[in-house]
Structure formats: C-alpha cells, structure tokens
Write a sequence for this structure.
C-alpha cells in the first residue's frame, strides 16, 4: 500500500454500516485496510518487532500495510477469534485468548486515532457507570433486550439470581437518537406510531417517523463532557423528551448502530466518520 497513511477498519466482512464509511473513504482516495480479527491467524497475519514502539506489517487478502502507516483505526464490530476445529475445546480457548492478546495488544499500542479505542468502549459499556444497553445470547445469536414496564408486585425471588437495574418511567412525547462523531452532532426525533413502539421504539420500526432536530446547548455541553470523561470520539446516545420538552438521558452506546438512522433521515454520519478518520490518517 506504499507509504500513504492508512485507515484500518476492524469489522466483519458483512458489516453494511462499515461499508458506508469505507465507500466514503474510497471516494476520497484515502487508503483503507479492512479486516476482521476472526480471521487471525488463519487468513490475517501480523509480524511485529518492538523497537521504539511496535513496527511490522499486517497481511490480508494479498495486501500488506505497515503498522507505522496506520493513521487512524475504525474499531467497528470485529468478530471473535476463531480457531481450527481440529483443536480441542480447551486448546481453542487458550489459542483464541493468546491471539486476542497478541494482535490487539500490538494494535492498541499504535500511536494513532481510534474510533473508538476498545478499552474506552469497554469502560463505557458498564451501564451503572453511564447507563448502556445490552444483549442476551440465544443459541449463539445476540438479541436485543427491549425496554419493558415492570410490575414490582409480580417479582419473585428469582430476581436475586442476577444483578438488575431499573429506572422510573418517564412520560415522553418522543425520543431522540443522537449520534456524535468528534465535534459533529447528528440528532433525530423518533416518534412512535404504536403502543409497543411507545414503550420501546425497537419493538415496531415500521410505525416510526423521524425528524432531524438541533441539540439544545445545555444537552450538547453535557454530552461533550460525558464523551470527554469516557475518552470517546464516537457515541450513539438515546434520550426521552417529555411533553414539556425536557431531554432526559437514557444511555450512550460507544459502538452503536447508525446506518439505519442515516438511511431514514439523511443525516451525514458516514461523512462525519470519514472526515474524522481522514484527519487522523493525515495528522
């Protein structure tokens, strides 16, 4: 890939949201090296030597990029490390852990812009710390956990088997999805068209309508401080707006989905991400 600064994109090969950013970078003639950690070490390889920092190269799909050329990294949604089935289960677990420590250990040591650094994503994923959503695993498939209204009289002793967090119901006129990329704020109202969507808009996408809005100054200042404290340059934030017009914070997802909100609203989120990654690669 020559001596050009390069944007590393870590995600699955079928990530259509990342495709939007890669396409934007390609149109700007920015060098991109995309790979999935699940392919290491069977298809993706790395050679690194410790000198004044780590130096070496990544190889994937017949292409090579020098680690020193990495100007920015889009840490989107890479897969888990997958080891050959010929290994025993215990050996696969050990090899996967060592592969994760080796590859990501080298990559996170690179002196470049991360969107976001995986360590910062991990910190911001503790909901009691900032209030973040989660998933449950059903036969190996992640599934979202929609919001539900809880009747405390219906709770039994099974609640003691896991940590729980509940919050008061907030009367809402609509909700807001705010996507922050560096200094670019992209916000859209989400209006529910059904009772199910009013509880949680993820329950009924077909009923939703949207409107692009500005972010109030006080909310913007609070979000800037939240992002600063967690060391994030990207975040997908959810708010409830009360009938009186007050924005009430629900959560920040440090690696949230955004492709769908760009599609339905036209908000230039992929453009903002490409701007940020391009600046990082050029600095």
């Amino acid at each position: 890939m020559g001596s050009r600064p390069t944007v590393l994109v870590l995600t699955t090969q079928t990530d259509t949201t990342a495709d939007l950013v890669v396409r934007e970078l390609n149109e700007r003639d920015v060098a991109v090296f995309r790979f999935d950690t699940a392919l290491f070490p069977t298809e993706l390889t790395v050679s690194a030597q410790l000198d004044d920092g780590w130096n070496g190269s990544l190889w994937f799909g017949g292409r090579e990029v020098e680690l020193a050329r990495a100007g920015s990294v889009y840490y989107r949604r890479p897969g888990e490390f997958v080891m050959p089935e010929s290994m025993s289960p215990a050996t696969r677990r050990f090899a996967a852990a060592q592969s994760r420590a080796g590859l990501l250990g080298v990559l996170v040591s690179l002196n470049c812009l991360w969107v976001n650094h995986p360590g910062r994503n991990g910190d911001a994923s503790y909901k009691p710390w900032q209030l973040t959503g989660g998933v449950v695993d059903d036969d190996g498939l992640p599934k979202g956990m929609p919001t539900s209204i809880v009747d405390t009289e219906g709770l039994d002793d099974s609640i003691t088997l896991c940590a729980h967090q509940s919050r008061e119901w907030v009367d809402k006129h609509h909700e807001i999805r705010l996507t922050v990329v560096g200094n670019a704020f992209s916000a859209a109202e989400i209006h529910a068209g059904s009772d199910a969507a009013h509880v949680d808009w993820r329950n009924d996408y077909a009923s939703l309508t949207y409107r692009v809005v500005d972010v109030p100054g006080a909310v913007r200042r609070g979000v800037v401080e939240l992002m600063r404290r967690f060391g994030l340059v990207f975040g997908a934030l959810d708010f409830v707006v009360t009938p009186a017009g007050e924005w009430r914070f629900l959560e920040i997802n440090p690696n949230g989905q955004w492709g769908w909100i760009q599609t339905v609203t036209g908000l230039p989120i992929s453009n903002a991400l490409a701007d940020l990654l391009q600046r990082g690669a050029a600095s």
Summary: The CA atoms of residues 188 and 212 lie 4 Å apart. Residues 133-143 have pLDDT under 50 and may be disordered. The radius of gyration is 21 Å. Helices lie at 16-27, 89-107, 118-124, 127-130, 195-199, 217-230, 259-265, 269-282.
